[in-house]
Structure formats: structure tokens, C-alpha cells
Amino acid sequence: MTTYNDLWLIGIAWRLDRLRWAPTQLLGDCVRGNGLCMREFPAEPAWQDQRLTDRELAGAMCQGCRVADECLELEFRTGGADTVGVWGGMSADDRRELHPHWLRRGERAERGVDR
Ligand code: SF4
């Protein structure tokens, strides 16, 4: 049975599919040059002392980052499913759940199947 969480993850995987043919080097340059945490991150962010879940922390850290999709795509390509920390606006647990959907995204698109 497909859950709401599955649909959310499938939607992200499909969104990332637009980056499928972008060279990894280009993604890296894009994230390093434009990532919010790479450029404008405050030394003491407002959420620093708050008790947040990993998902909430990911949302707070990456909110407004213009290259979150590129960051997520890059993380999957270079680190795979089992990296730690916040990348691409997602917690490690959420990325681990997203990874199988990410691997199947093109296959789905090519077959026209929405599962
Ligand atoms: S998505 Fe988050 S971790 Fe990635 S570059 Fe942007 S702020 Fe940094």
C-alpha cells in the first residue's frame, strides 16, 4: 500500500529527475557557490539551542536555499543512501527512505508507471 509519505518521497524523486543529466562536477560547483550554508550561514543560527527533530532541523537549516535539489542530488550521487547529517533539506532518515525512489525515478518515467 502506498502511503502519503511514499507519495511525498516519490514527488521529490520525480522533481530531482530534472537534474538527472547534469554533470556531477557542475552540481558540486553550483552547491558550493550558491548553497545557503556555504555562504550566508549565521555563526549562531536562531534554532541553535532549540530541541528539534532531525526533520525540523533540516527544514530550519535549509529553508530558503536555492540549490536544495542540487544538494540532494549531489549527496545521493557522491554519498549514497547512508550519509549522516542534513543535506538537501532532508534528515538522514528521510534521505534513506527517499533513496530507493531516487534510484527508480527514471525507470518510472520511462515506463509511465506512477508507483
Ligand atoms: S540544501 Fe541545506 S545543506 Fe544543502 S547547500 Fe543548501 S543549506 Fe546547505
TrEMBL record:
Highest taxon of the source? Bacteria
Instruction: Describe the location of the 4Fe-4S Wbl-type domain by residue ranges.
Output: 36-97
Cross-referenced PROSITE patterns, in alphabetical order? 4FE4S_WBL (PS51674)
Name of this protein = WhiB family transcriptional regulator, redox-sensing transcriptional regulator
